[in-house]
Each structure stands twice: as C-alpha cells, then as structure tokens.
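Folded chain entry
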Amino acid sequence: MNNLIFNTTASELKSSIYGYNQSSLTLQLLQLDSAGNMLMTGSVTVNNAITIANATLTVDGSVTVNNAITIANTTLTVLISGQTFTSATANLPNVTGTGNVFTATNISTLTTASMFINNTGSNTVTYSLMLSPDGTTYFADPNYTSKTVIGGGKAVIPIDIFAQYVQLQYELGTNTATFSAYYNGQA
C-alpha cells in the first residue's frame, strides 16, 4: 500500500533510505541504532581529508584514511587493540594567580597516565599534581609539589600514586605565564 497517498496519520508515515554498495553493485538499507546514530559495520575507506569536530566519536570496525585527518575535539578516547587511550589539552595564555587544569579528572579506570607542561612564555610556572579519593578533597603528590618549569621549558609528570581523581594546580602569584598542559591516559 502507498503510505504517502492512503495514510492519513502522520506518525505512521514511513520510508526507507538505501545506499548503493559499489563493491556488490547492490542497494543496501541504511539503518540507525537506538540513539538515532547511523550504523556502520565493516570497513570504511576515506580518500579525502576529513575533520572531526563533534563532541564524541565512536568507531566500531576499521577506518582507513588515505589522506590527512584532523580531530578538533577537546578530548579524545580511542580503543586501540583492546586498549583505551584518552587525552586532553588545555592552552593557557596570559594567566596569573592560582588555578587548576583538568579539574576532577577521573583516573580510576586507567592503568597508566601522565600530564605534561609546555611553558611557551618567559616566566616560570610553578605546579603541583593534586590527587583525590573523592573528587572534593585534594592532596599534593609529594613527588610533584611546587615544582617549576622555567620559561621555554617542559615538564613530564607521571601519575604513579593510586587515586580516583587528579588535577594539575598552577601557582603564578602576580606573574603572567603562557603555557599548555596535556593529559594522556591508557586503560
């Protein structure tokens, strides 16, 4: 029956969208999951440059990109051969005083994690790695308390004390600093 002509109830109007499969030379029904996302199974090959700037991205299967790929997310989680990798970046231009970066970052599911500071300014940045059992009360990691990174310098901060939450605290006083902070973790 033709749903468009003989159906008078809008909620019952239905249609199907098909895509052409160049490999099998057939039409295939495109489907959505329960959240309304397009289902893609098997392999996907992209021959042009792509940019991913969405809030989240999940890929189940393989994706081959034969050109450049740009990921503009502030955080990224990738499953690589059974290992989950997560990262975040914070650029802090011309900051003063005391502040926190990666506030209340949950590290409870990670097996290894690190933070990094790239001081691109000329003033020294003083930092402390703060750990928390509950995301509210923080304790300074005794190995990374009031450490400094001179202007143009870099620091690697391994997170090697077991905790549920972590954040990076900077203390600049009245000085102005420009730096980037990075967070990487793997489960």
Notes: Helices lie at 3-6.
